[in-house]
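Q: What structure does this chain adopt?
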Amino acid sequence: MLHLTAESLTAHGQVLFTGLDLKVEAGERVVVLGASGAGKTTLLNALYRHAGKNAALIPQPHGLVGPLSAAHNVALGRIDQVSLLGNLRSLLWMPQAERSAIQDQLLAVDLPSHFDQPVETLSGGEQSRTAIARALYRGSPLLIADEPCAALDPERARSVLAVLRARFDTIVCSMHDVRAGLALATRIIGVADRKMVFDQPVGDVTEAQLDALYNNGDKSQSSAEQSETNPLDTMPRGCM
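A:
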């Protein structure tokens, strides 16, 4: 499905990742694990650019447009699939078929009552779910997601991950909660020092390998601890 290789990924003369050789087959759920600054976001962004229009993206930060409603932010998931005139019409007057389709995605993430609410007035968790609904609305077989549940409580995270598993044939994502990542994955990629240090079926990954990724063995780091500042960070195609 995807095969990305590169001796190094660079931006502005800075080496951001080295020794990249990543192949993703259809039907896999690949979870990328590693400590803050390890290179997870760089890897996911590179894979997303390589995938082109065949992927939906849930980025960090979410790339939402604050003054627009949740519905219009979800609609941006297909902005490159609609003409300029069609996008302008939707902004001013959204057709009923589009409204219904978007409402279905908001319902899937338990936000049906926030359809017309500006996302800048939503909580962090609600904004996160809006970004997830935008990816659902795009309708691609492949999802690339950067810690999609970092702002959600455990129960909500389990619900959202179940929706993602049901809706996307193939998933590549990073997870701030390692245990949740292990439960989701068919395959784990460990990232440290801006390179891949292991790539194995989830059942073959050992506690020692996980401990080595995080040094202190903490496998439930917060999103703030896990987030990366990366010159290659991109907005989703639905927000360009």
